[in-house]
Design a protein that fits this description.
Length: 167
């Protein structure tokens, strides 16, 4: 429950913002000398901004909402903000999607849980992303917790999907 130290429990109760029966919004404005957005108590009894657990839960929730709004299927064409050439989804599941350019020169792996994309982390890349069998093997290896394959953290970019064309 959101409790303002001055307004009391009525502020923010049930998703409303009322003070003395009048609706108001002070998420970004000072109200009684407090920034309400920074003063909310979380379910762990901490200030929301100081609670790593709540921050992580919100991040996962945001990533799941983003993933649901960009549900990908094999064959979809994906345009990333930082790329000039569109990518084609060659393999995907609920955790990862592997996309290549039409020329098959470039590939990227989307990690839905991390909200990032990049190449894999293997120095001597065992996968030929021009072959569908290798792409599917890479997807299996990414999902296998015992395998070392994952997206590389060096140079990883935040997920920047601009457009998805359904085929």
């Amino acid at each position: 429950m959101i409790i303002c130290p001055v307004c009391g429990p009525d502020y923010g109760a049930n998703g409303t913002r009322k003070f003395n029966g009048k609706e108001h919004c002070c998420n970004t404005e000072k109200h009684h000398g407090f920034y309400h957005a920074l003063q909310y108590s979380c379910k762990h009894g901490l200030k929301y901004k100081d609670c790593a657990d709540c921050q992580a839960e919100d991040y996962v929730k945001e990533m799941n909402e983003r993933r649901a709004s960009m549900e990908l299927d094999v064959g979809n064409i994906v345009l990333f903000e930082k790329e000039k050439e569109p990518y084609i989804v060659k393999a995907c599941n609920d955790k990862f999607a592997i996309c290549i350019t039409s020329s098959s020169d470039l590939y990227t792996i989307i990690d839905w849980n991390k909200g990032q994309r990049n190449r894999n982390n293997l120095i001597f890349n065992p996968y030929d992303y021009k072959k569908q069998e290798d792409i599917e093997r890479c997807l299996r290896d990414l999902c296998d917790t015992e395998h070392v394959c994952e997206i590389s953290q060096r140079g990883a970019v935040e997920l920047d999907i601009v457009k998805v064309e359904r085929v």
